[in-house]
Design goal:
This protein is mainly alpha-helical. Helices cover 57% and strands 6% of the residues.
């Protein structure tokens, strides 16, 4: 094959690499709560639930901003004692990205194995396995499912023999 043909062929594939180190469970949870829930529940009543949640978030941020505006007006005088042109304000971020970040920060992945629930409190092997399985669940739910190549770096690392076989 010539370079152009090879490039066209390779561009037909999506390459997914799952590392064995630098695992970021909150990042995977963020991906699940962001794009994947949209894909999974698109066109269902879940869309209405997300709208209600977003409206509640906007109401919360607006209310918090109003409270902080009053507070900043009350404390500006103290700062003016040091420098007359200092005005104090608080800014409550209201972007969609902040909304997604807030959701992701509030969601914790748990595995109930009759011990501690939080994955981040589990051993390295189970944490690693959870990341691999979550990635596969994400991939199963993508609209474009064909031509995906998954490379899992040391999938058996930190696992005892029984889980390695599974």
């Amino acid at each position: 094959m010539v370079k152009k043909e090879l490039t066209e062929l390779l561009n037909k594939f999506q390459f997914i690499y799952i590392e064995s180190i630098n695992i970021n469970i909150p990042q995977i949870v963020e991906q699940l709560t962001d794009d994947i829930i949209d894909v999974e529940y698109e066109g269902t009543r879940m869309t209405e639930s997300k709208k209600v949640l977003k409206e509640a978030y906007q109401s919360y941020t607006n209310g918090l901003q109003n409270i902080l505006n009053v507070f900043s007006q009350n404390i500006t005088g103290t700062f003016n004692n040091f420098k007359s042109n200092w005005n104090i304000s608080f800014v409550v971020p209201k972007s969609v990205d902040t909304f997604r970040d807030l959701i992701s920060d509030d969601v914790e992945l748990c595995i109930d194995d009759k011990g501690c629930n939080s994955v981040e409190q589990k051993g390295s092997g189970l944490q690693r396995l959870a990341v691999i399985l979550l990635n596969f669940e994400i991939l199963k739910r993508l609209k474009k499912k064909s031509n995906i190549i998954v490379c899992v770096d040391e999938p058996d690392i930190y696992l005892h023999e029984g889980l390695q076989k599974n």
